[in-house]
UniProtKB/TrEMBL annotation:
Pfam family, one: MHC_I
Protein name: Major histocompatibility complex class I-related gene protein-like isoform X2
Stored PANTHER family: LOC571647 PROTEIN-RELATED (PTHR16675:SF193), MHC CLASS I-RELATED (PTHR16675)
Cross-referenced SMART domains: IGc1 (SM00407)
Any one cellular-component term (Gene Ontology): external side of plasma membrane
Length: 406
């Protein structure tokens, strides 16, 4: 227990005394155009701390800054070289998304997607030095992992059999793997450091403490609820959160789920953790949150209530009451009609014989009903940071037709 307390304290102090930054580039290619606004066959964007800093698409065919400081600090030739780099990658993706479709035995009836993400993440220490945390270089096809670079072993990892030919080809070009490792650990970090300095004022905002909530909603599994801990509105991004049961921290093995820290629209952040528990569970559940803005961690105890568990019952009761009332009303009207208390003639309506005639208007005993007709009228570069210094190596290791033949 003492070791656990010391470890928790160490992690908390590390979080308080450092600041995480990330730089990443995401390229997305579609197998064919789709008629949707803002969706293009090829797009590429750079992200600093999940905020877009540059953009390119297959329509405009020009790399443009998305932050004023990028426009002001970087020279014209940076954007010109970046545009050429993006155009080159657009052609690369156009060729390779088709190759992968063949390899996956997919036709062009549906839209297929090839995506590449690469970048780096660092910790900025109190003395302003940057500590490399991890690098990312991975490909996905139709949303599933296809190929990823292992920075530690300098090898490509193929999670699916269809990626094995590419893995073998790329691992066979060791200079490419050496460059990829160097880019992630050095070149990417250098550009990240430069962008941090350029956008320092824009990325500096007042620190904001988290607001913490604990609530439960009905789970899909009968007799269970999903207990959620949410912290939102905090800045900077780094935060610690746990769900505790009777003072004991729950883990993934206990079913705890989370999408991690996500951005809010106001440039603050949020995080949610949830776990499924029996609806009748009377144990003590608490949300633990720690953040650099807090003098001490926040503990929020779940009150044991479920937000929407009773809604189904209420709806059913209301529906039953309405049905009973409607049946009673109809029964009353029929009784009155039979007793002659209600007569169509009293309201100026046609006599019963004429009403029957209109219903059987074609004389064949078939009622002709005119129904209204409605119509639906709605009816990075590897080196964007290096401006393409990886292009030659990429071409050498490209997914060529002969490289991926079955």
């Amino acid at each position: 227990m003492y070791f656990v307390v010391v470890l928790l304290l160490f992690r908390t102090l590390s979080m308080v005394n450092s600041e995480t930054w990330s730089l990443s580039y995401i390229y997305t290619a579609l197998s064919k155009p789709v008629e949707l606004p803002g969706i293009h066959e090829f797009t590429a964007m750079g992200l600093l701390n999940d905020k877009q800093i540059d953009y390119y698409d297959s329509v405009a065919k020009k790399k443009i800054p998305k932050q004023d400081w990028m426009r002001e600090k970087l020279p014209a030739d940076y954007w010109e070289k970046g545009t050429q780099s993006r155009k080159s990658k657009e052609q690369w993706f156009k060729v390779n998304v088709n190759i992968l479709m063949d390899r996956m035995r997919h036709n062009n009836t549906d839209v297929h997607i090839l995506q590449w993400k690469h970048g780096c993440e660092i910790d900025k220490q109190p003395d302003d030095t940057l500590k490399f945390i991890k690098g990312t270089d991975q490909y996905s096809y139709d949303g599933d992992d296809f190929l990823a670079f292992d920075d530690a072993t300098m090898q490509w990892v193929a999670p699916v059999d269809q990626a094995l030919p590419t893995k073998r080809k790329w691992d066979g070009v060791q200079i490419l793997n050496q460059y990829t490792k160097g880019y992630l650990e050095k070149e990417c970090v250098d550009w990240l450091s430069k962008f941090m300095a350029y956008g320092d004022k824009e990325f500096r905002r007042a620190d904001s403490p988290p607001k913490v909530y604990a609530f439960a909603k009905k789970a899909k599994t009968a007799g269970h609820v999903r207990l959620t801990c949410m912290a939102t509105g905090f800045y900077p991004k780094d935060v610690l959160m746990y769900i505790k049961k009777n003072g004991v921290q729950l883990t993934k093995q206990d079913g705890v789920q989370s999408d991690g820290v996500l951005p809010n629209d106001d440039e603050t952040y949020q995080i949610r953790m949830s776990v499924q528990i029996p609806e009748a569970d009377k144990e003590t559940y608490e949300c633990f949150v720690n953040h650099t803005t807090l003098k001490e961690p926040i503990w929020v105890k779940w009150d044991g209530k479920c937000c929407d568990c009773s809604q189904v019952t209420v709806v059913v009761i209301v529906a039953v009451v309405l049905v009973v009332l409607i049946v009673a009303l109809v029964t009353s009207l029929l009784v009155l009609w039979k007793k002659g208390k209600i007569c169509a003639g009293n309201t100026g309506a046609l006599p019963p014989t004429e009403i029957q005639g209109s219903l059987n208007g074609n004389g064949n005993g078939a009622a002709i009903l005119s129904m209204p007709v409605t119509t639906d009228g709605a009816s990075s570069t590897s080196s964007d940071s290096g401006q393409g210094s990886k292009e030659r190596l990429e071409r050498e290791a490209m997914l060529t037709n002969e490289a991926i033949g079955e």
